[in-house]
Amino acid sequence: MIGGRVVLALGVSQLVCWGLSYYLIGGFGARMAADFGWSRGVIYGGFSTSLLVMGLASPFVGRLIDKQGGRYVMSAGSLLMAGGCAGLAMSHSLVSYYASWMLLGVAMRMTLYDAAFAVLARAAGAGARRSMSQITLLGGLASTVFWPIGEWLAAIYGWRGAVLVYAAIALMTVPLHLAMPHDSDASGPPPPPLPPAAPMLTGRAATRAAILYVVSTMLAQFLNAGMSSHMIAILAGMGVAEAASVWISTLRGVGQSSSRLTELVFGGSLTATTLNIVASAMLVLAFVAAFFSAQLALAAIGFAFVYGAGNGLMTITRGTLPLALFDHRTYGAFVGRLLAPGFLVAATAPTVYATVIDRWGEAAALGMSLAMAAATLAAAAAMPQIKQATD
């Protein structure tokens, strides 16, 4: 049983940790480039490096949470996040800049959704779906809250001062993670697993489902990394006023939390595979709308909001699909391995998007995004067929 205090603490920590780390480059990237005098590819390459480190660290962190629980793992991640933000604020060379992003990469894997989902799966097994949805409600607002806060802080203190404030805020998340129960007694047996809600896949069916899960999450993570880094720039490049681009982009967070709230209230009857199809279809719709953002303000708003809604549901299914398809008793380690390719591919997204935008423009970046969203939908649509064939 997962208490409300734990869910609230995890939800707040997700709001703060996502805003401080994953969405940092989207708010300060342009200012960093102007300050350092480096190209867009070099600046966003730092974020790419952090995602690469997330992928490399993913299996280890998953096993660590399975063994030790999340209380101390996530608390240590908060300390590393503070160190990474402080390092960025004080960076004046390429080596220190990239080293700080590498530190943030480890911190993100230890504190963001995938770590929190593993904690919840450890506590409630297949019954963790509702709690997973609940913690994403606040986490989905991270860009909505921290992009404007970052703009405000940077206007007063500059981007370095703003990121130093971020480091102080990261330290404040340590008590949130320490509020989790003591589930990390390595000397005793793990808590008894709850029975699965449905038969798990085995053999070739499990392998095929795992491949589709990897493809679906890999493409979704690539798009998420690209949009987190460049959504504001893409809207501005498509003809939306720069100031309006910032505020329209914050609707992504509103869309994420709105869709998650809708799923929490009304989505109980939907299977994880069906919800994954709905989420993937929303991504396709969002990128179609984006092509008309220069002519219609409503299309720009729809792009940000619907993309956020689809991405918000994809985040939930990334955690709940393994509960529906595979054995939850080794959730942390198993899902850690499945997610690693997604982190590695997503690591290229900020730089790939920067290169595509610089060479061919924002419309080309949107075309690439639409193709990947369509492939995500195809993988999602194939997944329930495997499940049905084994029922």
Unreliable runs, pLDDT <50, ≥5 residues? 184-197
Give the helix proportion (percent range).
Answer: over 70%
**First-last Cα distance:** 28 Å
User: What do the pLDDT scores average to?
Assistant: 87
Q: Which structural category fits the helices and strands? A: mainly alpha
- Beta-strand residue percentage: under 5%
- What does the largest sheet look like? none
Rg computed from alpha carbons, rounded to a whole number of angstroms = 20 Å
Count of helix runs: 17
Instruction: List the helices and strands in order.
Output: HHHHHHHHHHHHHHHHH
How many β strands by DSSP?
A: 0
Coarse shape: globular
Summarize the structure.
The chain has helices at residues 4-20, 24-36, 40-68, 70-89, 94-111, 113-124, 129-139, 142-171, 174-178, 203-237, 242-249, 251-266, 272-290, 297-325, 331-346, 349-360, 362-390. The protein has 391 residues and is mainly α. Residues 184-197 have low confidence and may be disordered.
Topology readout:
Blueprint (H helix, E strand, L loop, with lengths): L3 H17 L3 H13 L3 H29 L1 H20 L4 H18 L1 H12 L4 H11 L2 H30 L2 H5 L24 H35 L4 H8 L1 H16 L5 H19 L6 H29 L5 H16 L2 H12 L1 H29 L1
Helix pairs in contact: 1-7, 1-8, 2-3, 2-8, 2-10, 3-4, 3-5, 3-6, 3-15, 3-16, 4-5, 4-8, 6-7, 6-14, 6-15, 7-12, 7-14, 8-12, 10-11, 10-14, 10-15, 10-16, 10-17, 12-14, 13-14, 13-17, 16-17
Task: Give an overview of the whole structure.
The protein is mainly α and 391 residues long. The chain has helices at 4-20, 24-36, 40-68, 70-89, 94-111, 113-124, 129-139, 142-171, 174-178, 203-237, 242-249, 251-266, 272-290, 297-325, 331-346, 349-360, 362-390. Helix 7 (129-139) packs antiparallel against helix 12 and helix 8 (142-171) crosses helix 12. The radius of gyration is 20 Å and the shape is globular. Residues 184-197 have low confidence and may be disordered.
